[in-house]
Specification:
The complex is a heterodimer of chains A (about 220) and B (about 260).
Chain A (H helix, E strand, L loop, with lengths): L1 H16 L10 H12 L2 H14 L14 H12 L7 H30 L9 H38 L7 H22 L2 H22 L1
Helix pairs in contact in A: 1-2, 1-4, 1-6, 2-3, 2-4, 3-4, 3-5, 3-7, 4-5, 4-6, 5-6
Chain B lengths: L9 H18 L13 H15 L4 H11 L10 H13 L4 H40 L4 H30 L3 H8 L1 H25 L4 H4 L1 H17 L4 H21 L1
Helix pairs in contact in B: 1-2, 1-4, 2-3, 2-4, 4-5, 4-6, 5-6, 5-8, 6-7
The chains are: A mainly alpha (about 220), B mainly alpha (about 260).
Chain lengths: ~220, ~260
């Protein structure tokens, strides 16, 4: 039953990724918490969402760029981890999310090609005024079905894999998180590069770093 | 970022106010049929349709021709496409020459794309996400951090959409001047240091905060520092190798755990 609910959630959040609104409820941070509620483990969902958000900070739905689909990837990751509680559940779920994000991104690309065939061409029809909204709404409906299908297939294939691997995970909780943060650190470096690089931004970055270190000691 | 009222706005208001509201609401789904052939073109025609129907209420052939014109290729940042929609709605209501409308769309689509990408995708989105991630890492309740992210981001997001549409409607063909005066690239320049500060804050909390890298141990701290430098020097080229390496490392640990 939770698979059905999570599948619908994946479809809805997939719509927010590009087609409808872009209110950013599709970001891993939000999608992880929502999927955690549906799957019955908010804390684990939020942790997976937080880690995936760190990885995907530099992945944005910009123009025609091909990007990993964050929303369906996060829902799949949280759903796959939900039945398991060992230290391996989170890292294996994040790995599943990173892989499935690429699959989701590929289906977004396919959907865009399909849309290109479906939207009316100028001069192609006398009934253009009716066909334009029809084609547009059909594309949105198709995007919902695509996101749902990507999520459902991801959960159905991912859960047994995690079920087989989680019990044998050799690292403890702290080391598992450390392993995940190595990849997240690469994204943080890329983001600093995007924002002007260390040489240009060293004062602001160092100030923030100092505040973060001081704040974490105080709290 | 305020649009100055134009003396010639009453005809548009008289003609199209409810239709303009409908066009604005449709702009929220302008990317619904995004495709590689026309990009936002079909979404633009879909969003503009209520205004075009109102203007050409008794001229079916003129309506069809107008829809055809706006089905053509168009691209912009989705939030700032509201500027173009507002301006084009106003020009259509004034029965501007179709070639003039086309030239305006061609002239502003590039700036609307690059200004929006720099301001929203490269600055505001990471900035608000970094703020929320820092709060989460410091132990703020999950829904508190999620609310901070969604409220901050969408205040900017919806503010830009509403401002853009109003500015477009008020300025019509003069919308370029409004865009210049709004100084969106200046806002990006001013917000970038704040985003960098928030990035530093997150890195600091991840290093020293509860469950952070200091707790994980020195090897993970050193590897993370190495990863950060790799990302800093290599930029976006390093993202995919880093993601692949993470997945491979997790796979290797799983297999190792299974064998031993």
């Amino acid at each position: 039953m939770d698979i059905a609910r999570l599948t619908v959630l994946g479809g809805l959040l997939g719509l927010d990724g590009t087609a409808v609104g872009q209110f950013m409820v599709s970001r891993p941070l939000v999608a992880g918490a929502l999927a955690g509620v549906v799957a019955g483990d908010l804390a684990q969902g939020a942790l997976i969402g937080m880690i995936l958000e760190l990885y995907l900070l530099v992945s944005v739905p910009s123009g025609g760029a091909r990007f990993p689909e964050a929303s369906t990837a996060t829902v799949v990751a949280v759903a796959c981890a939900a039945p398991f509680q060992g230290a391996g559940a989170v890292p294996l779920a994040v790995a599943a999310g990173l892989v499935w994000g690429q699959v989701g991104g590929a289906t977004v690309d396919m959907q865009r090609r399909w849309n290109g065939e479906r939207v009316p061409r100028p001069g192609a029809s006398d009934d253009l005024v009716r066909r334009v909204p029809r084609a547009h709404l059909l594309a949105i409906a198709a995007d919902f079905l695509r996101g749902s299908a990507v999520t459902g297939v991801g959960i159905i294939t991912g859960r047994p894999v995690l079920g087989a691997l989680v019990p044998h995970w050799p690292l403890g909780g702290a080391a598992s998180l450390g392993l995940l943060l190595v990849g997240g650190a690469v994204s943080a470096g890329i983001l600093l590069n995007d924002l002007g690089g260390f040489r240009r931004r060293k004062v602001w970055f160092t100030l923030g770093l100092g505040l973060g270190l001081a704040g974490s000691q105080l709290l | 970022m305020s649009a100055s009222p134009s003396p010639s706005s009453p005809p548009f208001v008289r003609l199209c106010t409810p239709a303009a509201v409908s066009t604005f609401l449709r702009s929220l789904v302008i990317q619904g049929s995004w495709n590689y052939r026309t990009m936002l073109g079909s979404g633009f025609a879909f969003a503009l349709l209520p205004v075009l129907r109102r203007i050409h209420a008794s001229e079916p052939e003129a309506l069809k021709q107008a829809v055809e014109r706006h089905l053509e290729h168009f691209n912009a940042h989705p939030y700032l496409s509201s500027v173009a929609l507002g301006a084009v709605a106003r020009m259509e209501a004034e029965r501007a020459d179709p070639e003039t409308v086309r030239r305006l769309k061609t002239a502003i689509r590039g700036p609307l794309g690059s200004l929006g990408d720099a301001l929203i995708w490269a600055t505001v989105l990471p900035g608000t996400a970094l703020a929320a991630l820092s709060l989460l890492w410091l132990g703020v309740p999950i829904w508190g951090a999620v609310a901070v992210f969604l409220l901050l981001f969408n205040a900017v997001h919806l503010g830009i959409r509403v401002w853009g549409f109003r500015a477009g409607v008020r300025a019509g063909r003069e919308v370029g001047r409004i865009l210049n005066r709004a100084d969106l690239s200046g806002w990006t320049r001013r917000l970038e240091p704040v985003t960098v500060l928030l990035l530093g804050l997150l890195v600091g909390t991840i290093i020293g905060g509860p469950g952070g890298l200091v707790v994980s141990g020195t090897p993970w701290l050193l590897l993370s520092a190495l990863g950060f430098v790799a990302g800093l020097l290599g930029g976006h080229r390093t993202w995919r190798p880093a993601a692949v390496l993470t997945v491979v490392a997790i796979g290797v640990f799983s297999l190792w755990g299974g064998i031993s």
